[in-house]
Amino acid sequence: MRLLLPIAVILAALVPACGSPALPGLDGGSLPDAGTASDSGVARDAEVALDAAIALDAAIALDAEVALDAALALDAGVCDPAAVRFPMGGTLSAGTLCDDVFVCAADAAQAAAVQAASPRFRCDVAPEGPCAGVTCAYRDPGGPSTLDPAEIAEICKITVLVPRPDLVCFVYL
């Protein structure tokens, strides 16, 4: 997908240089009006398709960047996967089943640190899940079901807090 824009730009530059008329919409000019050209609908469809391809390319690049960020966090030591308990089994890795992630904070100050580290966690003084006191829960909304790189990156932010809170991946059966 990433090649679509450079090819269109190259064509727009080469076609006028070769003595042929410029492609509508690619030379900085506007697309022909629907009342003046019979193929204006095709040109508009092509422009919309190009915009969609560029948007899809940006979304794919963002997903790849998030996955890379999560992998780099693990490699750089800014994540401690062992800090997350998985009572039903599992590890902090993509595809692991995890219905809710809870942080059992020692007090309100630690809960504030959790929320400052990751806005995906919401804290409450009422016990929830495996926590006996202040509870912070991952809200995406409703927490993950299987972990993906973006969720792992958010959880990693909590694993390196000092003092380290108790993190638990909870699975409902």
Low-confidence stretches: 1-27, 61-76
Distance between the first and last residues' Cα: 41 Å
SS strand fraction = 5-15%
Helix fraction, binned, reads 40-55%
Number of domains: 2
Largest sheet: 5 strands, mixed
Q: What is the average of the pLDDT values?
A: 73
Strand arrangement across the biggest beta sheet: 1-5-2-4-3
Number of helical segments with 4 or more residues: 4
Whole-angstrom Rg: 25 Å
Oligomer: single chain
| Total strands | 5
Determine the structural class based on helices, strands and strand pairing: alpha+beta
Shape: elongated
Structure, explained:
The protein is an alpha+beta fold. It folds into 2 domains: 4-76, no CATH class; 81-170. The chain has 4 helices and 5 strands. It has helices at residues 4-17, 40-76, 108-117, 149-159, and strands at residues 84-85, 100-104, 121-124, 135-138, 166-170. It has a 5-stranded mixed β-sheet with strand order 1-5-2-4-3, with helices on one face. The longest helix is centred in the middle third of the chain and has 37 residues, at 40-76. The two termini are 41 Å apart.
